[in-house]
Amino acid sequence: MSKILWKPGTMIYPLPAVMVSCGSAPEEYNIFTVSWTGTICTDPPMCYISVRPERHSYGIIRKNGEYAINLTTKKLAFATDWCGVKSGREHDKFREMGLTPVSASKINAPLIKESPVNIECIVKDIRELGTHHMFISEVVAVNAEEELFDEKTGAFRLYEAEPICYSHGKYFETGGLIGKFGFSVERKPGRKRKK
Ligand SMILES: Cc1cc2nc3c(=O)[nH]c(=O)nc-3n(C[C@H](O)[C@H](O)[C@H](O)COP(=O)(O)O)c2cc1C
Question: 0.70 cut: is pTM over it?
Fold first, then answer.
């Protein structure tokens, strides 16, 4: 393979494109799309979102110290993009996208009912990095769609909700299963483990 040396930039793709919901009362409720997000610790469960201060949502999250990450699906792709190009300063995004705000269990911010997984977050630290400020947050509750749990095994089958991802300005469906955690070292029946 021969490589082209590119200028330094944000090149970790694909990424999720989540819908972040915020606001402590219905008149303040808002949704915006975030790709600069991820897990940063397992125990305590922690994640981050990085937000430009000029976003309408920035002030809301900074003031309330909480928000919810709502995972997105093929069905939610249009709303995911729209909430990422329109501002809550001019739009009621829940109403205009036909999304339903529902109460969270541990935070005042609303959850998006139509999303299969809602992650309730409380801000622990804010790192003002540059263009984006990183909200380092603790996950205080996770709401997962009941229908996605396998009745027999209890396994959570997020893939059935058709999650989407974001890469170089485009949205993609996630592809088929190609292995499971540890499959590279799994012993095949009748075969000895390689040293
Ligand atoms: C796919 C996608 C990913 C985005 N990721 C981020 C992000 O990580 N951080 C951010 O500040 N804005 C991000 N944006 C832009 C905001 O979602 C957008 O500016 C939005 O209109 C802000 O809404 P608000 O003014 O109601 O808060 C993204 C937009 C899209 C479409």
Answer: yes
